[in-house]
Structure formats: structure tokens, C-alpha cells
């Protein structure tokens, strides 16, 4: 019988070293950007239109290859920016040599969308601050904002949905916070819990009842998968389940007033921001 | 708490749908998503219960044991994430 080798082949090795599984959240953001493009301008689609065409001379800074569609470039950038993961391993001393291909990939992505990638790199270095400087509640909050810039960056710098910045700030603090607690990676659990609870508390300010319902329905099982695999996460899962079930209860009560932000400052949430359907609903 | 959270959702999603409390272009889609979500959560609840059958309830609350090593050659697991001092 042939001996089984534990050493992965070159393709598998590339997928592991460049952490291709992280493409799942990144591509979700890219698809969301594509979905938003026709709202920016009806002539835009994923394969046509430069979102920076009204930026004057700045459009060449945001996208030097101005003749290519932004939708495709943001997709390519999501792939090439994966060079950052081996670079991260190099910084942490897990691999001895500077990975050349990774640096080349980062340079290519920087050339394709300089401003987006500059802010994503800024976000990456913000996430590293807990390791370079010190792990305390301040740098942990900076780390969460760094995650926001890195993963949600295309939503702002390509999708141009700037109104999302504030809700996504609370979302990133909540998502990153509860993961820090679950993994025992926080220096102050109390402060991290406070920032986690700002997430459900802040959502009625920014979103429609249906949007909150979708967030509740998606975020609970997405996080609960940890505890289905390893039950010792159950206490965090149960707090998350309860917090978001209560959020839904509050949403039902407040439904006619949502989003609250439009009462405080009308027009904060741009209307309409609901993209047209890609596929028609199959039932009457 | 997990069970209560699920029960609240079991009550709320159909109520919202039957009374058509919300109106939104994507309301039907979100309702379907919420039902799928409920099925996953109830299945997941049974999974947790089966996996921890006969075990100390403490298992629910202990959190993940920290198992990272700072360097490959380290013998003991680290008590913190790597920091460059």
C-alpha cells in the first residue's frame, strides 16, 4: 500500500498559506458591493462603470486603470491582497523568509486600487497594534476598527456606502468583541462585554425592522456554529442568542419608528438603499 | 438562556409573518431565512445536548482552553497572544 503523506501538495499548501478560506467573508463584501453598484448609477454593473468617474482628478488616484470596471478590480484586489497572510506569518516569525510572491501580490493590489488597499493595509496594521504595542482595552478597540477597515473596506471605498460606517463600527466592536471573549483573548472581559452589547443596542438606530430581523436570523447560527463543534463555547452562544432575541422583541415594539436615526437627523439613512432584485421571487 | 432565546424566536418570527408587522421588499426572503435559522438553532441545541450528555454542566461555561504556542519549539502552551516587547 502506498504510504500516506501528511505534507500537503503545492496547491493545497498555497490555499493554506494564503488562507483562502478567508475569501468567504471577503467575497461576500465584494458581492454586496456589486449589488449596490446600480444604485450609485443605473449604468453601473459588476462588469461596467468606474465608480470614481465624478471624483475629478482624484479618480486617477483611486483607480489608475480608470478604463477598467471597478466591480472587477475590487474582485481581483480581494484575491491578490491575500498576500497579506503570509506576510503576517513572516511578521510573527512563523516563517523565516520574506515571501516574495506575497509582496508582489500586495504591490499588484496596491496598484489596482491604491486608496482602498492603503486603508486596508492601515486596517491590517491597526489589528497588529495589540501585538506590537500592548494588549489593553484601547488597542483592542483599535484592533476591531482595523478589522472593519480590512474586511468591510470595499463597501466604503468602492461601494461608497458611507452611511454604513457608524453601524458597522458597532458591529465590528460586537463581532470582534464576542470572539475575543470566546477565545479568552481579551485583557478586560468587562469592557469587551460593554462594547459587545453596544451592537444590539445600536442597531435600531440604523436599520429597518426587516433588516434587523435578517441580522438576528443570520448572526445567531453563524456564531453558534462554534458551540455545535465545541460545546464549551455555549455560554457565549447563549448570551448572543438571548441578546439578539431581545433585540428582535424590541424591534417588534419599535417597528413603526425604525430606523431611529431618521427621527434624530432626517436623511442620515439614504433612501432608497434597497437594491433591485437579481432574481424574481418564485412565489406569488 | 440559549433555550429561551430560541423560544422567543419561535414565537416572534411566525407572529411577525402572520400579522405582517413589517413591510419591506425583501420581507418574504427574510422570513424564509429566519425559518432556516430556527431549524439550524434547534438542531444545534440537540447537538450540544447530545455532545455533553452526562457531563458536568460546567462544560458550558468554561470557555476555550488557551492552546496556542508562541513558537513551535515551546513545550508549554502560552498564556497570552504573542507580543513584541
Q: Can I get a quick summary?
A:
The complex is a heterodimer of chains A (284) and B (85). With 284 residues, chain A is mainly alpha-helical. Chain A is built from 13 helices and no strands.
Describe the structure.
The complex is a heterodimer of chains A (284) and B (85). By secondary structure, chain A is mainly alpha-helical. Chain A folds into two domains: 10-160, no CATH class; 162-272. Helix content of chain A is 65%, strand content 0%. Chain A is built from 13 helices and no strands. The N and C termini of chain A lie far apart (59 Å). Chain B is mainly alpha-helical and 85 residues long. Chain B has a domain at 2-52. Chain B has two helices and no strands. In chain B, helix 1 (2-18) runs antiparallel to helix 2 (27-51). The longest helix of chain B is centred in the middle third of the chain and has 25 residues, at 27-51. The model of chain B has no long low-confidence stretch (mean pLDDT 70). Chains A and B meet through helix 7, helix 11 and helix 12 of A and helix 1 and helix 2 of B.
Amino acid at each position: 500500500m502506498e504510504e500516506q503523506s501528511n505534507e500537503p501538495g503545492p496547491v493545497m499548501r498555497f490555499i493554506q498559506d494564503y488562507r483562502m478560506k478567508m475569501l468567504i467573508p471577503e467575497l461576500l463584501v465584494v458581492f454586496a458591493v456589486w449589488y449596490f453598484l446600480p444604485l450609485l448609477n443605473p449604468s453601473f454593473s459588476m462588469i461596467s462603470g468606474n465608480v470614481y468617474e465624478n471624483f475629478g482628478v482624484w479618480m486617477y488616484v483611486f483607480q489608475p486603470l480608470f478604463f477598467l470596471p471597478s466591480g472587477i478590480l475590487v474582485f481581483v484586489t480581494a484575491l491578490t491582497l491575500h498576500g497579506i497572510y503570509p506576510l503576517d506569518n513572516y511578521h510573527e516569525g512563523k516563517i523565516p523568509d520574506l515571501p516574495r510572491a506575497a509582496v508582489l501580490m500586495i504591490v499588484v493590489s496596491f496598484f489596482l486600487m491604491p486608496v482602498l488597499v492603503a486603508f486596508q493595509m492601515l486596517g491590517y496594521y491597526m489589528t497588529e497594534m495589540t501585538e506590537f504595542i500592548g494588549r489593553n482595552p484601547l488597542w483592542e478597540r483599535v484592533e476591531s476598527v482595523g478589522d472593519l477597515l480590512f474586511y468591510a473596506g470595499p463597501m466604503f471605498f468602492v461601494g461608497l456606502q458611507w452611511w454604513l460606517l457608524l453601524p458597522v463600527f458597532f458591529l465590528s466592536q460586537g463581532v470582534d468583541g464576542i470572539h475575543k471573549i470566546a477565545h479568552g483573548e481579551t485583557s478586560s472581559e468587562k469592557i469587551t462585554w460593554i462594547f459587545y452589547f453596544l451592537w444590539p443596542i445600536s442597531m435600531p438606530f440604523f436599520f429597518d425592522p426587516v433588516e434587523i430581523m435578517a441580522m438576528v436570523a443570520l448572526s445567531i447560527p453563524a456564531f453558534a456554529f462554534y458551540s455545535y463543534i465545541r460545546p464549551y463555547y455555549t455560554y457565549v452562544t447563549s448570551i448572543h442568542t438571548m441578546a439578539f432575541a431581545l433585540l428582535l422583541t424590541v424591534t417588534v415594539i419599535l417597528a413603526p419608528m425604525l430606523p431611529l436615526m431618521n427621527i434624530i437627523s432626517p436623511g442620515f439613512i439614504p433612501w432608497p438603499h434597497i437594491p433591485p432584485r437579481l432574481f424574481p421571487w418564485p412565489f406569488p | 438562556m440559549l433555550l429561551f432565546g430560541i423560544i422567543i424566536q419561535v414565537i416572534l418570527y411566525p407572529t411577525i409573518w402572520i400579522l405582517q408587522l413589517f413591510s419591506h421588499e425583501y420581507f418574504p426572503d427574510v422570513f424564509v431565512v429566519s425559518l432556516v435559522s430556527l431549524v439550524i438553532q434547534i438542531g444545534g441545541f440537540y447537538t450540544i445536548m447530545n455532545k455533553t450528555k452526562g457531563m458536568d454542566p460546567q462544560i458550558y461555561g468554561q470557555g476555550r482552553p488557551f492552546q496556542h504556542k508562541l513558537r513551535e519549539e515551546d513545550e508549554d502552551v502560552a498564556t497570552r497572544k504573542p507580543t513584541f516587547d
